[in-house]
Design brief:
Blueprint lengths: L1 H21 L2 H16 L1 H7 L6 H11 L6 H12 L6 H16 L1 E8 L5 H15 L2 E8 L6 E6 L2 E6 H12 L1
Parallel strand pairs: 1-2
Antiparallel strand pairs: 1-3, 3-4
Helix pairs in contact: 1-6, 2-6, 4-5
Length: about 180
């Protein structure tokens, strides 16, 4: 995984620089997301790993799958990745690009786990509180984890805020032990 990030970083930086120069952040986001989805698909994995598939045919196949989403510069990028044998790191390129874009736009992408689905009002209140605390706009991705019993766990990269009942019980058990 770390090796893939190392391989992907220069490509993500190059794409980000081009997107910044062209003001095409959204187009590149869509193109990279599509490319990552195509590369990760099990059927496509078999095609990519087929020794009978030459680079030009592979690149053209991928370009044809993303005909409407892959604009000319993105099509060229597909060819570059195929020729450099870096197609496998497309998902990491997409993730790194999105991190760079979010950072430039002042947006923090947070993962929120809760014991039950959050209502729209709870999402808005939580987002407002986090924006105030972090001093940045936040984008919440929420998921349900019933093992939390109650409360939430918020992940901001490596930082974790555990405000769950499960976390409080664990903390209490450590104090009592």
């Amino acid at each position: 995984m770390q090796e893939n990030l190392t391989l992907a970083r220069p490509y993500a930086q190059a794409v980000y620089k081009q997107a910044e120069e062209q003001g095409a952040f959204g187009g590149w986001s869509a193109a990279l997301a599509l490319l990552a989805a195509v590369v990760e698909h099990p059927d496509m994995q078999r095609v990519i790993n087929d020794p009978r598939m030459d680079d030009d045919r592979l690149a053209e196949l991928i370009v044809s799958l993303g005909d409407k989403t892959l604009f000319p510069a993105a099509r060229n990028f597909v060819h570059v990745l195929v020729q450099a044998e870096r197609l496998a790191v497309a998902p990491e390129i997409a993730a790194l690009y999105e991190q760079m874009r979010a950072s430039a736009e002042g947006v923090r992408h947070l993962e929120v786990s809760s014991a039950h689905p959050l209502s729209d009002e709870e999402r808005r209140a939580l987002a407002a509180a986090l924006e105030k605390r972090l001093g940045a706009k936040v984008d919440l991705k929420d998921e349900v984890d019933e093992s939390l019993i109650g409360g939430v766990v918020i992940r901001d990269g490596d930082r974790v805020i555990d405000a769950s009942v499960r976390g409080r019980l664990r903390e209490l058990a450590l104090r009592l032990a």
